[in-house]
Amino acid sequence: MAISPHEPTAVPLVRSWRAELRVLLSWRRILNRLRAVLRSALVTFVVLTVTLWLMPGVESNDIVDTLGLVAIVAGVGAVLRPLLLVGITALGGWGAMLLGVIAQVVVIVVALEIDPANRISGLPSLVVTAILAVVFAAIVDWMADSGTEDTFVREARRLMRGVRRRQSRLAGGPLLTFRRPSPGTEPGLLMVQLDGLSEPVLRWAVRAGNLPTLGHWLRSGSHTMRGWHTGLPSTTPASQAGILHGATRQIPAFRWFEKDTRKLMVTNRPRDAAVLEPRLSDGRGLLRDGGVSIGNAFSGDAAVSLLTVSHAALPGRSARGWAAFMASPYGFTRALVLGVGDVFTELHQARLQRRRNLQPRVSRSGAFLALRPASMLLRDVNVSLIAEQMARGAPAIYCDLVDYDEVAHHAGPARPESMRQLESLDRMLGVIERLAPEAARRYHLVVLSDHGQSQGATFKQRYGETLDEVVERFSGPDHADAPSTPAESEATREPHFPEPPLAPLLVVSSGNLALVYLTRYPERLDRTAIDRVYPRLVNGLVAHPGIGLVIVQTADGPVALGGSGSHRLVDGVVEGVDPLLPYGPRARHDLLRHQESVHIGDLVLISCVDPVTEEVAAFEELVGSHGGLGGWQTDAVLVHPARWPVTENELDGPDAVHRQLVEWLAMLGLRTQPPALEPFAERPDLFDDQDRPRLSRTHDG
Predict the structure, then answer these.
(1) Which among 7, 55, 210, 627 has most CB atoms closer than 10 A?
(2) How many of the other CB atoms lie within 10 Å of CB of 509?
(3) How many helices (H) and strands (E) does the chain have?
């Protein structure tokens, strides 16, 4: 019998489809799908029952009718959600956020409109009912998960599998497959920054058992923890300029004045960050070889920048993680509802502080009430974007999670509220670990912080006046009406034009660091010139009990002045009592290096520090602050695979961390033109094939 020439092709095709059917009809897959359907139906039933019961004018709430409505909602969702996802993906940016909220409401409105029982009529009533149902659904889902991130993980896995199947099709793979993509084998590096977390706080939280994910990595030996010293200024933009670009000296503070352009620069203002990025970049940033920047101040020369301040744009159409998060009922809508709950939690926690007369404390109302849920929403978005990029196989990813830093600014770095935020970040690391098998690479995880925080009553609370007012008192007839600038995470509004005229004496504060500029003079003035213009200024500031250090340029180089003595920074000559003693053994080195920064003030001020409690007096109204010296604000942390070599005994400054991360990228084979290191292929001892992409085992080292 003749054999058709098509049979050799047809036989493998039939076998392939049989294999696909076996995967689709496996009992485990069917059971998991049935559980998901039953859970979704039960949640929808409870939500609709409660919502219809609350709505006035609803005469019938029959169980059979409600079950029918559950089926209608499921059918409408199955039809509309894919279409809405396409629309959300096409819109991108703000359009995706808006349509993401509307999508959930539209599904319920359409289902209620075609409900045979016709229990809700009129568009306003339909919309109100739908909004209530969406809110209740978010709450019930969260309660059903016992406050865990299970639904978030399921949605992220679905996103990752979709991304990988799409990439497989584009690469010539099968058009339709039910097989789950196998875990990637090529190495990748995921760097997660926990903003504002000091090494002593993290070490204490791990030892207390409050961080199960990080604690497991450290106790199992896959990872080790070490502190690193940020130096001055201890701020996110300065640290990220160093970590991502190796260019710390371009950032003298969180905000500063540039005499040549006569502009006040604020680093979390997108317009200013965009100006700064070209100054930092030499094309050799940490993420230059196809890396991804998520939620950072600067890009690190990444190929893809998402929610990066210097790029000043929301993710566009190509970021399916953004669109999927917005479209999912477990994404943006859930985060929005739980964020509102966070506002009430914040109000309760602030009231407890007042009733207990907890000191030090600051006001936690106003803009901070919006910042707290916004940071939680940003965290979930960032993890969704990380999941997408892991599925795409990005070789290196660097993401900043800001939750802890935001709360610690207003509550205090070691207060219960801040520790709860740290615990939520630990859960997010657990989410990333659970998502690792879906990734297109075998990711190794490095967790680090950019600085710590120091606690203390503010300068104004202690002395009844702001630093601006103190400077004005000692500056004679000149009035230093320096523009008031809000806390680090709040200074995002564009300035009004035209800008007010500059004061002749401008005070620019960043935590307990302040830069004072004589704006009429294009060059930086030394002590003699400042005394000539403002004879009482330097001596008055030195004598103030809230100011620990005044650094000024002299004929012998920069000198740190204190109330009872001085310290010449170049050669270490001390007269009287050394004013640097309360700031630790690194203070001279930090201050001398800071003097090399561009656009530094004519005067540099550091607030006092309590030698017993290590509390500082922030020049801003923040109970937890960073930017200067004193306390834990310069004690950052690095958690990395335990067997990876660290070439420097002490990681001193963000630039040193940058060099170390670059060496690890080169070791993994992810860096072109690497430095002289042993190639990845020749160091099999550093990577165990049994290790998951999760992390590498850990000691508390």
Answers:
(1) 627
(2) 27
(3) 21, 18
pLDDT in tens, 390-429: 999 999 999 999 989 988 998 889 988 889 889 999 999 9
DSSP-assigned states of every residue in 207-263: HTT--HHHHHHHHHTBEEEEEEE--SS-SHHHHHHHHHHS-GGG--SSEEEETTTTE
Expressed in percent and rounded to 5, the helix, strand and coil fractions of the chain are: 50, 15, 40
Interatomic CA distance for residues 434 and 428, integer angstroms: 10
- Separation CA 478–CA 460 (nearest Å): 21
Residue 109 in 3-state DSSP? helix
Q: What is the pLDDT of residues 249-301, one digit of tens each?
A: 999 999 999 999 999 999 988 899 999 999 999 989 999 999 999 999 999 99
Biggest CA pair distance of the chain: 111
DSSP element (H, E) containing 191: strand 187-194
Both tokens assigned to 50: 């409660």
- The values of phi and psi at residue 473, to 5°, are -65, -40
Q: What is the C-alpha to C-alpha distance for residues 194 and 206, in angstroms, rounded to an integer? A: 14
User: Hey, what amino acid is at 358?
Assistant: L
- Asked if residue 443 lies in contact with residue 190, where contact means CB atoms within 8 angstroms, the answer is yes
Nearest to 129 by CA among 151, 97, 104: 104
Q: DSSP per residue over 19-47, as a string?
A: HHHHHHT-HHHHHHHHHHHHHHHHHHHHH
B/e letters for 304-321, b = 16+ CB within 10 Å, e = fewer, are bbbbbbbbeebbeeebbb
d(C-alpha 548, C-alpha 582), whole Å: 9
How far apart, in whole angstroms, are the C-alpha atoms of residue 31 and residue 33? Answer: 5
